[in-house]
Amino acid sequence: MGFWKYIAFPVLLSIAYYFLRGKVNLEDFLKNTYESQKIEITLGEGESKLFTKEELSKYIGENDGPIYLSILGSIFDVTKGRKHYGEGCSYSFFTGKDASKAFVSGDFETYDESSDDVIGLEPSDIAGLDNWVQFYHKDYTFVGKLIGRFYDSNGEKTEYFKEVDKILEDVKEKRKEEEKLQDLFPSCNLKWTKETGTKVWCTSDSNGKERGWTGVPRKYYEPAKTYFRCACVEEHNLENPNLKQYDDCDPKATTCYYSVD
């Protein structure tokens, strides 16, 4: 039914009469007639409304009204989650505003002009915010964009948001590299007992992923890190400079024991 369910039958007849006689543009008629009633009309797939901060601030659920929140400039209708976002509820702090930073900081009390300034956060935290955006797209209704830090008055991404996008792309690329390394040097099985110390061993499915080969345990020092993890390594990769053999363990053994002094 879409927006038609909000329009009385006599009004529909009037619209049809004037539209068929060519006296009014249907889209303009609907916008002009119902804008004052705050009925949001969707005129096409993918269309969205632009909100100012002042407009968004009205959507906090007062008198059982709709509840909106914004994250990274994307606005979502969270009314169906009123028990969480309603006045006095756990996440009511987020409603009627963009407080993106609080999704990371957990500070549900402080709100100011910097509450949506995310570039100073750790890249992994910014990626976490992007995950939140995907969550809201999946579980709630996207209703528009917030004019300000992330979107301009035309609904286009600002230079600020483009910088955020660059950070997200860097994080994604880094994760791809980490996944490649994890496939190349998967983690060993590991067990510690007081009697034997630490046992590390390799199987064809150690690290929880079947790979068709076993490998041998090696200390793997990841680039730019001072600590190591146990990795299962195929014979043709044993010359990698980031690998070190376990002391007192046969180079071809699939199981090694060691203790930490």
Structure explained in plain terms:
The chain folds into two domains: 48-174, Flavocytochrome B2, Chain A, domain 1; 185-258, no CATH class. With 261 residues, the chain is α+β, with helices and mostly antiparallel strands. The strands form three sheets. Strands 1-4-3-2 form a four-stranded mixed β-sheet. It has a three-stranded antiparallel β-sheet with strand order 5-6-10, with no helix packed on it. Strands 8-7-9 form a three-stranded antiparallel β-sheet, with no helix packed on it. A hairpin with a 2-residue loop joins β2 and β3. Helices cover 29% and strands 17% of the residues. The chain has seven helices and ten strands. α6 packs across α7 (159-184). It has helices at residues 9-20, 26-34, 53-56, 82-85, 102-105, 123-139, 159-184; strands at 49-51, 68-71, 74-77, 141-146, 189-193, 197-201, 216-221, 228-233, 243-244, 255-258. It starts with 8 loop residues before the first helix and ends with a strand.
